[in-house]
Amino acid sequence: MATYRTCKSLFTGIAIAASLLLTVGCSHSMPTDEQVQKGAAAKEASTGDQASSATPTNDGKMAMGAEAKGVNTNHDVFHSRSLEVPAGTPVPGLSVEVEEDSVRGWNLYVGTANFTFEPSKVNGESLPTEGYAHLYINDQPAQRIYGTWTHLPELPPGTDKLRVTLMANGHETITTQGQPIEESVTVEVYDPNAATN
After folding, report:
1. How big, in percent rounded to 5, are the helix, strand and coil portions of the chain?
2. CA 148 to chain centre
3. Per the confidence metrics, is the pTM higher than 0.85?
4. What architecture does CATH give domain 81-197?
5. Helix, strand, or coil here: 153?
6. For residue 78, how far is the Cα from the chain centroid?
């Protein structure tokens, strides 16, 4: 009976410690109300108060990711800052290609010059020559990219624009001469419903 109580107490303590570590170690600071309002105002000003991302886009396609489910991810608030490449620092270069996977989905290649993917340093010090990338599909945030090759299991049927933007570890968009360092590629995805309509 004493062994059971000792084990139960030990497991309870471990569970509490694990919860605490996950809560503290995996969370980032939430934006203040002022930051959220500024981000929303900036987005409204830049988009001309377009419809919510949970609605169909202008080309009739649906928004992707958490935004499509009506979840506020604060993406614009966390990524509205930029980091300019300073004079004298080699400007990062970017090339993007996409190939259909032989089994399912698509393989996205993101080649870089003067830039290193550093997934272990995300949320750390920001440098204009290292970090990660963001993938946008039809101008909707889709996912982070931490390396040269990324598999995309699905893309929406029709014409899809894939845009990749370089990001610093502190989640700033890396810019040169005030412009984001990004590349786009367009992919035609077979739509079985288009042939029957």
Report:
1. 30, 35, 40
2. 15
3. no
4. Sandwich (2.60)
5. coil
6. 11
